[in-house]
């Protein structure tokens, strides 16, 4: 178990951590993508709902 922790410590020292600026930039990109996809899904749902309602009114 001690060897595993030692190897873990050695491997973590090899990690190149992002800067604060990179982290903020990447976070903003993810938030923008989530908002964009959310709006796209909402619009698709609204259009699909309108089409289905139109079909129901057409055939009923």
TrEMBL record:
Protein name per its UniProtKB record: Protein translocase subunit SecE
Extent of the signal sequence: none
Transmembrane domains' residue ranges: 28-56
GO biological process: intracellular protein transmembrane transport; protein secretion; protein targeting; protein transport by the Sec complex
Single GO molecular function: protein transmembrane transporter activity
Protein purpose: Essential subunit of the Sec protein translocation channel SecYEG. Clamps together the 2 halves of SecY. May contact the channel plug during translocation.
Keyword Transport: yes
Membrane topology designation: Single-pass membrane protein
NCBIfam families: secE_bact
Compartment list: Cell membrane; Membrane
Recorded family membership: Belongs to the SecE/SEC61-gamma family.
């Amino acid at each position: 178990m001690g060897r595993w922790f030692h190897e873990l410590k050695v491997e973590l020292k090899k990690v190149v951590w992002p800067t604060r600026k990179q982290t903020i930039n990447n976070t903003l990109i993810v938030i923008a993508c989530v908002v964009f996809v959310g709006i796209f899904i909402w619009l698709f749902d609204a259009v699909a709902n309108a089409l289905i309602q139109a079909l129901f009114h057409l055939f009923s």
